[in-house]
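Please, structure for the following, as tokens.
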Amino acid sequence: MKRGGTQALSMLRLGYSLPARILRYPHPVIVACNGHVLAMGVFMMLSADYVIGSRGDFKIAANEVAIGMTMPRIAAAMLRHRLAPAAFQRAVTMSHYFDPESALAAGFFDELADPAELMSRAEACANDAMQLDPRAHTASKRRIRKALVRKLRISVPLDLLDAALIGLRK
């Protein structure tokens, strides 16, 4: 494999490993999403403890299939973790583009805020999260996410192998 291919696989490995790290992060992770979210951005966002989206003319999509990629195992696991079953099917197989309201209904977001209030709402949510017992928070989130994190870690080398094989065919 050429140097560029090795660098690309290294970048993919780091990107594929990040959701598990976020899922296990010992402190509350609050995301304020103020615009479009596509592909890997979706999976990073879905790794958070709480996601606040902004109302507006924005699109949220796991668009891998639309751009000719087979959905990585890691991405499918993150989508399955958060989305309602019917939305999961549309997101994965149809690369469906969700607007903020339908993304909320699907499970991408926990709530929506007006753009001017997004950051203050995220800060309020973060302040509320700081009131949680830190030990109980960490232990609980790790307990309920243990199987998902294990699946992600097992999937990293498989998804990298898929990427390498595709790269070798080109």
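The radius of gyration is 17 Å. The chain has a mean pLDDT of 94.
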